[in-house]
Design goal:
By secondary structure, this protein is an alpha+beta fold. It has four helices and nine strands. The strands form three sheets. It has a four-stranded antiparallel β-sheet with strand order 6-5-4-9. 24% of the residues are buried.
Length: 228
Amino acid sequence: MSKKATISVFGSKPENAIIVPELPLSVRNNCQAGKWTIGDTEYGSKLSMTILKFSKFFGSLGQTKNTLWGQIWFVAESGELPKDVVLVTYVKGRSLRDFNRLVATVQSRGVEPGEGIFVPEFVKHSGQKPDESGILKPINYYSLKWEWVERTDWQMVERAAAVLADPSNLSRLIDLDSTQNMIGLDNLPPHEIASLMAAYSHSDNSGEISLPPSDNGIAQLPAMATAS
């Protein structure tokens, strides 16, 4: 009896491991549809997640120009998004402010928020937006309201810690495509962040953002930082 031929091109996931893709798998929280999407594929509105890393950026992504962004690297624990795979998403505006509220609230209790489960929920809002002729039209849109649940099963935390302990995995937690028109804020002092945002927030500049010089005059690369 002949042995079945095998090939190894991409490799497979070891048991109980979490995959960190070679190229970032970016998930969009679609504020128009109120659903999570990857590319053109919708994955519903339900999600709970373990967060591996959070970073702050300022710049442009898609049609949104010169604003503050939160970059979240996470693993889905429930919902329709792929499981056991590290994903990345970006939040801004109302969604980012509510995320910051939740993190600060949990921290104030003397708890590390990353040890729990984050549950973002799409909440519907109504507003107005000018059409092509400048006439205001009613619109509906969604933002994320965040909740936090204390964990009872710690297996996911152990698996996430194993991912973060591997330098080769950390080197993949960089999304150069989505952040090409952004600057990382994690390692910048508050006065430089304020100057940067003031310079660009009221401008029509839609090109790449220039990094502020460091003390030695050399531009700093966007920063990478673990959640805190």
